[in-house]
Amino acid sequence: MKKALLTIGNTLRGDDGVTTYLGHLVEKEKIGWNVFYGDDTPESQFHALRAFSPDVIVVADAMTGINVGSVEVIDISDDRDYMYSTHNLPMPILLSYLRGFCGVVLFLGLNVDIEKVLEINPSLSEEAQATARRALIKMLEIDAIFDEQMIS
């Protein structure tokens, strides 16, 4: 099974770079996911994702407005009012496009403190690093679900 992680975030905006850190953790742990770093323009990775032709894509982005430090798989496929992201990217449209060539697309929200994404800051807080480690555990759980489906 081919699995892709698309990270979205700006590493110059402090904790907004939490998913880039998650991507590095996924690569370091060698858990079988190809990482695509979308930074501020995730659409720049669409061609590479399409060429990779994954069976599953997890789109990870920093979020605000929910419990700081939590990691959630959220269904926002029909939520046209979605504004939890730290970006103005219309996430339902992005996910809809990805579903055009990949049957399983999940959104993984990593909840960060909005105060730590508002200014130029190239460092990631300890809190965000801990959130990324929790997200790695969530990625392993997602991985186990798909591995189990492959065996069935």
UniProtKB/TrEMBL annotation:
<dbReference type="GO" id="GO:0004190">
    <property type="term" value="F:aspartic-type endopeptidase activity"/>
</dbReference>
<keyword id="KW-0378">Hydrolase</keyword>
<dbReference type="InterPro" id="IPR023430">
    <property type="entry name" value="Pept_HybD-like_dom_sf"/>
</dbReference>
<dbReference type="InterPro" id="IPR000671">
    <property type="entry name" value="Peptidase_A31"/>
</dbReference>
<keyword id="KW-0064">Aspartyl protease</keyword>
<protein>
    <submittedName>
        <fullName>Hydrogenase 3 maturation protease</fullName>
        <ecNumber>3.4.23.51</ecNumber>
    </submittedName>
</protein>
<comment type="similarity">
    <text>Belongs to the peptidase A31 family.</text>
</comment>
<keyword id="KW-0645">Protease</keyword>
<dbReference type="GO" id="GO:0016485">
    <property type="term" value="P:protein processing"/>
</dbReference>
<dbReference type="GO" id="GO:0008047">
    <property type="term" value="F:enzyme activator activity"/>
</dbReference>
